[in-house]
């Protein structure tokens, strides 16, 4: 038993209202839970990356027959747009903290538009490719990785849409909002994943 | 109740009113962690019975060398479903149920951090179970590739329909994975952020430490299985070639994904049982847990090492020699933190004032079987022995000493120990002891013979075998039926006691811990006012009437 701390000391240190605040900290719990959820999500992506590297380095016939490689320039522009959108999201979040709702909404909408641009760009790229999902292990991995990431981008846009909608409820967003912080974090996460993905798939061919 | 300092004093309970049984709440979408905990426990026990019946069929088939009871397809389905149900529908959910019930009470919280998420995670379990059972009605039957579902066996599809047993199996396991991640986020957040004032990490009961460690494994390793399952699903249903060597895929990649999770999953299953041992041994020995801090930290050590050992399941999968050596070393390293725990439990019991009630008997039995499983585990970690017994009954014997001998027996210990708290009634001690006796003899008769069978070379997953293996198979089958029968006194005990057992006092075992400070069963909000914790969790022996009495007698 830890007897070094006396009862008096503790009783004095913890006032009843502290105990109350302790259990009411729902926003903090949500953010904490969301962060560990994202850490867990990153393990899924890491597993895909590890699988990609293992198969690429051990498979003799890596690309499907008749395919020489991937075109890099258009995805590179897409990458720049997506990465920039993370900064826009950051400034949107800051504007909200300064209670500047109008700037928040504009920048938030811009982030969504940049995300949508990325998704459309990827859809066009997919439609132009000469190999399919079931064409060898490369085809499968390419569509799986970009598709799974695309699903995350789509989810991010959807979440931002909900946050934007909720910002029109009066008083809802006074002095910041956990939902916006969490969505913004999610967006940065999706960006970082894309940078790794872009290097793995497009740069390291 | 006002802010109650937690000291090692057992307060005599005076009035124990008849507890009210409101059974309807267990069938509703409740967000109370205690209701959810019991929902988990009862649901998973129903699946335990189904999984157990399947194993009875398997052992009935194996009582004779010929495959004369069921055809081989059905036999494949039997062991696949038995393994899947026991792991994903019994062990995981029952442990989550116990933790759901206990963790908020033990750390002085009113509920879990995300009560609705908690309820949603529970309701996925019956959905998962029912989905899995529907595969019995599919034209090609259930999945047959074993609980590990290795490709290319699992991705072969002999039917025209893409809805095969395997397809349903992967979907069902994916739902279970989502439920587990939701649970893990909830547990980690609850433990990190919702502890009562004064409940520092090193004042948490060792059980909470083990749940915390186990849930970290879920967060760190389960996503790898999710990644593998997504790819397997596409291979089985969409013609991709992730694991198909004909089109450049790599079947061993799936084994990496699978074992990167499924090895640490063993610790997700066994760590909370270590926690149960750490709670029960001190109470029934009237001594503090020996080396509490070391025991607590050893859980985190097990967590760390557990994700570095998965390749020991793949020694026979064309793994390079250097990698085998590396993973042999890391695997054997697990024995260190585990050994620390065993030493601490033995030291806790040592010269204690032992009370051999049912929970203690189950814990002692489980500890003995865990030590045995640990020894065979070190044998299996060793490359030359593993290459010899790979895919034989030796492996089956080893892991059943863990999953039944240790985990399921430990689970029974926990259910008996906290039954009065959960229901407000006492279980019947005689029936409990009968359950223990039958189970302990049954486990050993059932699973010990598998070791000599494996050493002699009998393969697992076969429905017929050479006649020289007959003797040990007959013994194992008799043991299995005995083990099956042992469940009957348990059911009688639980149902009977819950309906009309003697009302339980708040603290029938005179245990220390926040959960024993509240009434039996606890009120909806757990604590009227959150307690302030002023000492560690195992103050037995100090101000403990039983021990003091004994000491006085000795001196006098």
Structure description:
The complex is a heterodimer of chains A (205) and B (556). Chain A is an all-alpha fold and 205 residues long. Chain A has one domain (37-203): Four Helix Bundle (Hemerythrin (Met), subunit A) (Up-down Bundle), CATH 1.20.120. Chain A contains 7 helices and no strands. Chain A has helices at 7-13, 16-24, 26-58, 73-97, 101-128, 136-166, 178-203. The longest helix of chain A is centred in the N-terminal third of the chain and has 33 residues, at 26-58. The radius of gyration of chain B is 23 Å and the shape is globular. In chain B, α4 (165-193) runs antiparallel to α5 (206-237). Helix content of chain B is 64%, strand content 0%. With 556 residues, chain B is mainly α. Chain B has helices at residues 33-61, 72-107, 115-134, 165-193, 206-237, 251-285, 292-306, 321-333, 335-349, 358-381, 383-389, 393-423, 429-447, 450-456, 470-500, 545-555. The longest helix of chain B has 36 residues, at 72-107. At the A-B interface, α1, α2, α3 and α6 of A face α4, α5 and α6 of B. Chain A: Residues 1-205 form the Heme-copper oxidase subunit III family profile domain.
Short recap of the structure:
The complex is a heterodimer of chains A (205) and B (556). Chain A is mostly helical.
Name a few traits of the molecule:
heterodimer, A: 205 residues, elongated, disordered N terminus, B: 556 residues, mainly alpha, Cytochrome C Oxidase, Chain A, 16 helices, 64% helix
Q: Could you give a short account of the major beta sheet of chain A?
A: none
Number of domains of chain B: 1
Percent in helix of chain A: over 70%
CATH topology of chain B: Cytochrome C Oxidase, Chain A
Oligomeric state of the chains present here: heterodimer
User: How many DSSP helices of chain A?
Assistant: 7
The assigned structural class of chain B equals mainly alpha
CATH architecture of chain A: Up-down Bundle
| Number of domains as seen in the coordinates of chain A | 1
The name of the CATH topology of chain A is: Four Helix Bundle (Hemerythrin (Met), subunit A)
Beta content of chain A comes to under 5%
């Amino acid at each position: 038993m830890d007897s070094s701390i006396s009862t008096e000391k503790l009783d004095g240190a913890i006032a009843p209202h502290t105990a109350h605040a302790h259990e009411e900290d729902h926003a903090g719990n949500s953010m904490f839970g969301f962060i560990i959820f994202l850490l867990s999500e990153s393990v899924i992506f890491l597993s895909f990356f590890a699988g990609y590297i293992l198969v690429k380095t051990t498979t003799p016939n890596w690309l499907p027959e008749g395919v020489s490689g991937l075109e890099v320039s258009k995805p590179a522009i897409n990458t720049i747009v997506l990465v920039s959108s993370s900064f826009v999201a950051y400034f949107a979040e800051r504007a909200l903290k300064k209670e500047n709702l109008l700037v928040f909404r504009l920048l938030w909408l811009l982030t969504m538009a940049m995300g949508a641009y990325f998704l459309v760009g990827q859809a066009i790229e997919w439609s132009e490719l000469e190999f399919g999902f079931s064409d060898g292990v490369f085809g499968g991995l390419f569509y799986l990785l970009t598709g799974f990431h695309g699903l995350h981008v789509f989810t991010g846009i959807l979440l931002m849409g909900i946050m934007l909608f909720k910002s029109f409820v009066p008083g809802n967003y006074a002095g910041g909002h956990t939902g916006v912080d969490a969505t913004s974090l999610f967006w940065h996460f999706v960006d970082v994943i894309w940078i790794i993905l872009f290097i793995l798939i497009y740069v390291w061919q | 109740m006002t802010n109650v300092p937690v000291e090692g004093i057992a307060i005599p309970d005076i009035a124990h009113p008849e507890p009210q049984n409101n059974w309807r709440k267990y069938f509703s979408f409740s967000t109370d962690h205690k209701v959810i905990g019991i929902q988990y426990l009862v649901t998973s026990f129903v699946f335990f019975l189904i999984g157990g019946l399947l194993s009875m069929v398997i052992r009935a088939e194996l009582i004779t060398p010929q495959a004369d009871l069921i055809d081989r397809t059905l036999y494949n389905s039997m062991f696949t479903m038995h393994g899947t149900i026991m792991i994903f529908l019994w062990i995981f959910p029952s442990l989550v149920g116990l933790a759901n019930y206990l963790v908020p009470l033990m750390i002085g919280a009113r509920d879990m951090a995300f009560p609705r998420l908690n309820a949603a995670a529970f309701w996925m379990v019956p959905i998962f179970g029912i989905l899995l059972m529907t595969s019995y009605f599919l034209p090609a039957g259930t999945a047959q590739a074993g609980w590990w579902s290795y490709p290319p066996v699992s991705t072969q599809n002999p039917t025209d329909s893409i809805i095969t047993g395997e397809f349903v199996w992967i979907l069902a396991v994916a739902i279970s994975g989502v439920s587990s991640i939701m649970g893990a986020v909830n547990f980690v957040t609850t433990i990190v952020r919702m502890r009562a004032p004064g409940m520092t990490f090193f004042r948490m009961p060792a059980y909470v430490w083990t749940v915390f460690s186990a849930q970290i494994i879920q967060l760190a390793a389960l996503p790898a299985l999710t990644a593998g399952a997504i790819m397997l699903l596409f291979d089985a249903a969409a013609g991709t070639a992730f694991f198909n060597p004909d089109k450049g895929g790599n079947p061993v990649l799936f084994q990496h994904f699978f074992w990167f999770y499924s090895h640490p999953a063993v610790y997700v299953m066994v760590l909370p049982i270590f926690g149960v041992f750490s709670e029960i041994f001190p109470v029934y020995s009237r001594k503090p847990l020996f080396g509490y801090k070391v025991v607590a930290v050893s859980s985190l050590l097990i967590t760390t090492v557990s994700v570095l050992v998965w390749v020991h399941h793949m020694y026979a999968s064309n793994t390079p020699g250097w990698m085998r050596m590396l993973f042999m070393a890391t695997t054997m390293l697990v024995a260190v933190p585990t050994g620390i725990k065993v030493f601490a439990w033995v030291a806790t019991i040592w010269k204690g004032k032992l009370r051999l009630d049912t929970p203690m008997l189950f814990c002692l039995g489980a500890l003995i079987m865990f030590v045995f499983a640990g020894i065979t585990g070190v044998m299996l970690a060793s490359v030359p022995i593993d290459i010899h017994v790979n895919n034989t009954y030796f492996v089956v014997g080893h892991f059943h000493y863990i999953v039944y001998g240790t985990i399921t027996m430990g689970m029974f210990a926990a259910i008996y120990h906290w039954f009065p708290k959960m229901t407000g009634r006492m279980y019947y001690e005689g029936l409990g002891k009968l359950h223990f006796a039958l189970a302990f003899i049954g486990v050993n008769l059932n699973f010990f013979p598998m070791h000599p069978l494996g050493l002699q070379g009998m393969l697992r997953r076969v429905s017929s075998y050479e006649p020289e293996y007959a003797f040990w198979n007959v013994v194992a089958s008799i043991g299995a039926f005995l083990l099956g029968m042992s469940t009957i006194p348990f059911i009688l005990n639980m149902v009977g006691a819950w309906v009309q057992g003697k009302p339980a006092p708040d603290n029938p075992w005179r245990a220390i811990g926040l959960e024993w400070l509240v009434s039996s069963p606890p009120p909806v909000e757990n604590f009227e006012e959150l307690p302030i914790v002023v000492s560690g969790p195992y103050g037995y022996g100090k101000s403990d009437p039983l021990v003091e009495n004994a000491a006085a007698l000795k001196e006098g």
